[in-house]
Amino acid sequence: MKTGIIVVIVLVLLGFFGCSKYNGLVAKDETVQKAWGNVETQYQRRADLIDNLVNTVKGSAKFEQETLTKVIEARSKASSVQINANDLTPEKVQQFQAAQGELTGALSRLLVTVEKYPELRTTEQFQTLMAQIEGTENRISVARNDFNGAVNEFNSSVRTFPNNIIAGLGGFKAKGYFQADKGAEKAPKVQF
C-alpha cells in the first residue's frame, strides 16, 4: 500500500515537473515569435519609408533610372519573402535575410547616387526622411539582437537536459539565428 502511494506521489511530481518544463518552453517559444514579429515590423517600416524616399528623390532630382528601379525591385522582393513565426528554420531565416540584404544594397547605391545631388541633400523633407531611415535601420538592428537573444534562450532550453526530453515530446526544435551578411566583417569604402 505504501509503495503504491509513493509511486503515485512520484508520478504526480514528475507530471508537475514535466508540465512546468513544457510551459516554460511554450513561454520561450512565444518570446521568439514576438521577437520575430518585432523584426518583421521594423522591416515593414523600412519598406514603407522607401516609397517616400524614392518619391522625394524623384521629385527633387533626375538621376540614374537604373538605381531607382533596383531599389523598387529589391523592396518588392524583400516584401514578398515571408516566414511563419512557427517555422523559423535557419534556412528560412537566411532566405529572408538575403532578400533584405538585397534591399540594403540597393538603398546604399541610391544614397551614393544622391551624394551627386547636393541640392537634394539640403532639402528639409529629404533630411527628415534620411533621419527616419537611419532610425529605422537602428531599430532593425535592435530587433535582430532581441530576436537572437530570444532564440538563444529558447535553443538553450530546448537542448539542455531534462528539457530536451520534454522538448522532443512537445515537438520543440531549435530556431534559426540572424547572421551577419557575408563580407560584413570588412569595413565599406567611402569615396567621394
UniProtKB/TrEMBL annotation:
Entry-linked SUPFAM superfamilies: LemA-like
InterPro entries: LemA-like_dom_sf, MamQ_LemA
Subcellular compartments: Membrane
UniProt record similarity statement: Belongs to the LemA family.
Pfam families in alphabetical order: LemA
Superkingdom of source: Bacteria
Sorted UniProt keywords: Membrane, Transmembrane, Transmembrane helix
Protein's recorded name: LemA protein
Record's bilayer topology term: Single-pass membrane protein
GO cellular component: membrane
